[in-house]
Amino acid sequence: MNPFSGNPIEDSQNIRLRPMNPDDLDRVLNIEERSYADPWLREHFEYELTVSSISKMMVLEIHQKVMAYVGIWLLPPEIHITNIAVDPECRYQGLGSRLMEYVMDLAYELRIKQVTLEVRHNNLAALALYRKFGFEVKGMRKNYYASEKAHALIMSRTVR
After folding, report:
1. Which residues constitute the domain of residue 56?
2. 118 assigned to active site
3. What angle do CA 42, 48, 50 make, to 5 degrees?
4. Which of 36, 118, 144, 148 is catalytic?
5. 2 belongs to a structural domain
6. Of the residues 32, 48, 61, 130, which is catalytic?
C-alpha cells in the first residue's frame, strides 16, 4: 500500500476520509483555532501539504463539509501524529475515533512498529481517546505549551 496514494474512504452515512488539499485550509484553520490555544498557522499546514515528504494530512467530511482532520509524519518504523482535531460542534460522535482507526490501520498495513503523539496533560477528552486506542504515557515535557503553562505528555503505542 502506498500511504500517500490518497484513496478516499467513504461510507453510507455521507462520511468521507480523504487527503487534505490547499482548498481545505480555511475550514481546517477554523477548526484548529477553535480547538487549540496555540493553533498551527496556515504556513504550518501549507508546509505539511506542499513541502514535507514525510507528512500525510487527511480530512474527514460529513455531507462534503470538513469536520475533522489528522496529520501524521511517516518515519518508519514509526508514525508520529502531529495534529488531530474535530470541529467542536461535532465532538463526542466518534469522529476522533475514525481518525485514530485510520492511523492505526495505516500503521498495521505499513508494518509500522510504533505510533507516537504529544498531548496537553489537561486535555482529558484527547487522553481518553488515546487510551481507548491503547496509547500509554511514556514521558512528559514540562511547560511545553507556554501560553497555557501546560505540560506535553508523550504517548506511544506498539503496533502488532
Report:
1. 9-158
2. yes
3. 95
4. 118
5. no
6. 130
